[in-house]
Amino acid sequence: MTPTHPPAPSEKTLRLDAQALSAFLDSAFPAATRPTFGDVVSVAPRHVRMVLNPGPESIRPGNIVSGPTLMGFADVAAFAVVLAHIGPVGMTVTNTLTITFLRACRLERVIADARLLKLGRRLATVEVRMWQEAEDRPVAHATIGYAIP
């Protein structure tokens, strides 16, 4: 007897829309910390856009958004784009995260565009660009890998 495997995830097929993805993120993270991870704006094949309105907990010396805040935001945006394609698999975990801070991030709205670079049965790779006023002036860029159970 041959074991049956669930269908492989597809980079072209969404399993969660923006509303379902937001609901899952709201349930997956503690309510007190959830606002620090941003909100889902849109979901499309291979792409999720999120927005973060950083608060006082995000400030570092120089009155700019801290690196850990941007790293957390990038990680959640990447997690979101993977989940949008594989479904609500909470134990999908980060296995690599490389981030480059490109310019100071002011304490105002930050947008993250997470793009799926590769999606396999067990691993996913995502690129996240974070920007403020103009997409062509990113504040940070990250490449994040996920292990899928």
UniProtKB/TrEMBL annotation:
> By what name is this protein known?
Thioesterase
**Which residue ranges does the record assign to the Thioesterase domain?**
63-135
Q: Which CDD domains match?
A: PaaI_thioesterase
Q: Which organism is it from?
A: Acidocella aquatica
| SUPFAM superfamilies the UniProt entry points to | Thioesterase/thiol ester dehydrase-isomerase
